[in-house]
Amino acid sequence: MKTQVLVIGGGVGGLTVALKLARCGIDVCVIEMLKGNAAMYKGELLQPKSIQILQDLNLKKQVEAAGHKINEIQVIEKREKNTVYETIGCSSMNYNILNSPFDYALMIPHEKLKALLLEEAKKHASFTYIQPSRFKAFRNEKAVVDLEEKEVEIEADVFVAAEGRKSKTREAMNIKVKEHKYDHHFLTVSFPRPEDLKEGKMISTPHTFLGLFPLPNNMVRTVYLIPQGAYKGMKEKGISVFYEAYSELYPELADYVKHIKSWREIQLMIPVHFNADQYVKDNVVIMGDAAHSVHPMAGEGMNLAIQDGDVLGELLCWIIREHADLSCLKWYEKVRKPRVHHVLHLSHMSALAYSSPFRYFPNVRKKAIRQMTLDEKLHTKQMLNASGLGFWKESIFDRMVQIGLFPIRSNPSLSYNGYMFTEETDYPWEEGGRAR
Ligand SMILES: Cc1cc2nc3c(=O)[nH]c(=O)nc-3n(C[C@H](O)[C@H](O)[C@H](O)COP(=O)(O)OP(=O)(O)OC[C@H]3O[C@@H](n4cnc5c(N)ncnc54)[C@H](O)[C@@H]3O)c2cc1C
Fold first, then answer.
1. Which of 20, 119, 262, 431 has the fewest CB atoms lying closer than 10 Å?
2. With 80 as the cut, is the pLDDT of residue 436 above it?
3. Does domain 2-65+108-180+274-347 have CATH number 1.10.8.60?
4. Contact 42, 9 (CB under 8 A)
5. How many Å lie between the centroid of ligand 1 and the Cα of residue 380?
6. In the Cβ-directed half-sphere of 429, how many Cα atoms lie within 13 Å?
7. Percent of the residues in the chain that have a pLDDT greater than 70, as a whole number
8. Ligand 1 nearest-atom number relative to CA 47
């Protein structure tokens, strides 16, 4: 079997790059090892840059119809007093502060997003999707895959590895990653929500954290922080422990949480942080979770995969159209690696606020978040950096404002000039940007 580009893994990242290539008329084949939909929960929060990319792929209307718009995420700090949790601080991180048409995020069921990408890709004659088919190894510069209980070799000009965190291709390329693990894990599950729970909420106490992110159809995705190793003990105590944990932090959920009948419905999520030192070797490229993994606190993993797919897809279209040398694949790493590095750092810092020893200083966390949302410049930088639309580094002065050593600025200069990503910076391999 032969194709121009073989994409290993039909997750959001693999499907984004494949759709970009199919739109350019390039022969692209995606192999996906699962028989049907993934049973595991995965990312559902689309950041503004990903929405922009989906608009470019003609999918914005469908994605918005299947999603729930998020304008703000309320950050609520609570403290226990006489066995009841009282609110001691509340701030709002608001996407609307962004001076962009993409000044909102979107919650969409992960499998629905994949279905929309796949449906769109299938409209193109040069797109092939093979499921189930599992990549096993490289042999004589061909991919060896299991297909209908037979071993088949697939020849390709370029191999894109988008198989997620446990990438076999990354191992075959001998690219090393140094995994950072955290002292906490998460429980995650979705269930029906109160109708008035329309925006995101992050509720923190000195010991835990509950994230609530509304989905369409009156559902809510929830994430609850537990100490590493606590999962087994909680399960043994029965499902009532889960009900109590949620209800004491957000009493409005007391009845809703009972839709979850057993621990089997609840997924344990173990956060890991790594960034491969190399994304490209000869004609093999890694992307998405295969190249980097991010702590889920900032809701970025799926977005990084989509954004990798966008840049890599655009570059491959240009390389193939222009008959450029495959050494140009380095452009993908050049554009994406520093951006991924910044997002990983942002997520890691948010995660540390909930890790020891910092979680024992909740007042510092409360103050830092409050200062950040009150100071327009800091707030803008935070939302811009999380959005993926640009990058504006925080200065030492900003940090001083954040910890309260310097006052909140009135009327700060907010020119985004040079801080927003543009076609020229997203696709810099050809003068004028986009290679079309
Ligand atoms: C519980 C949970 C919550 C999350 N929440 C968020 C969030 O709110 N926001 C966010 O942005 N991100 C979130 N993430 C992260 C996000 O889901 C991932 O970063 C994203 O799915 C990565 O996309 P990907 O395409 O790189 O990899 P994946 O989604 O992992 O897709 C890889 C695909 O490759 C297939 N595959 C693997 N090996 C092979 C093989 N050998 N042959 C063929 N196919 C193979 C797999 O079956 C899979 O379909 C979350 C993750 C989890 C687990």
1. 431
2. no
3. no
4. no
5. 29
6. 24
7. 97
8. 11
Q: Which of 337, 351, 329 is nearest to 275 (CA)?
A: 337
Compute the distance from residue 399 Cα to the ligand 1 centre, in Å: 33
Show the beta-strand stretches assigned E in 95-171. Answer: 105-107, 127-130, 133-139, 142-147, 150-161
What does the pLDDT look like over 355-403, one tens digit per residue?
Answer: 766 666 667 777 888 888 999 999 999 999 999 999 999 999 999 998 8
The CB-based long-range contact list for 59-64 (8 Å cut-off, 24+ gap) reads 59/116, 59/117, 59/120, 62/116, 63/106, 63/108, 63/113, 63/116, 64/106
Average pLDDT over residues 270-284: 96
pLDDT at 48 over 60: yes
Cα 164 to ligand 1 centroid, rounded to whole Å:
5
The residue type at 294: V
Q: Kindly give the residue spans of alpha helices, DSSP state H, lying in 261-329.
A: 301-322
Q: 361 φ, ψ to 5°?
A: -120, 60
What letter does residue 207 receive in the DSSP assignment? S
| Ligand 1 residue neighbourhood (C-beta within 6 Å) | 8-14, 31-34, 38, 40-45, 134-135, 162-164, 168, 188, 267, 269, 288-289, 296, 299-303, 305
Question: Which CATH code of 3.90.1330.10, 3.30.9.30, 3.40.50.300, 3.40.710.10 fits the domain covering 70-103+181-269?
Answer: 3.30.9.30
Output the CA 396–ligand 1 centroid distance in Å.
Answer: 35
Ligand 1 atom closest to the CA of 213, numbered from 1:
8
Helices and strands of the chain, counted as H and E runs: 13, 21
Whose CA is closest to atom 41 on ligand 1? Answer: 135
pLDDT value of position 357? 65
Amino acid at 419: Y
- Rounded Cα gap, residues 63 and 114, in angstroms: 10
Is-above-0.90 flag for pTM?
yes
Question: Which ligand 1 atom sits closest to the C-alpha of 301?
Answer: 19
CB 301 within 8 A of CB 43: yes
Which of 156, 423, 169, 170 lies closest to 315, judged by CA? 423
Tokens of 168: 């076999």
CA distances from 357 to 204, 227, 265, 280, 369 (A): 15, 13, 32, 37, 18
pLDDT above 50: residue 435:
no
- The domain spans of the chain are 2-65+108-180+274-347, 70-103+181-269
Distance of CA 39 from the midpoint of ligand 1 (Å): 12
Average pLDDT of the chain, as a whole number: 93
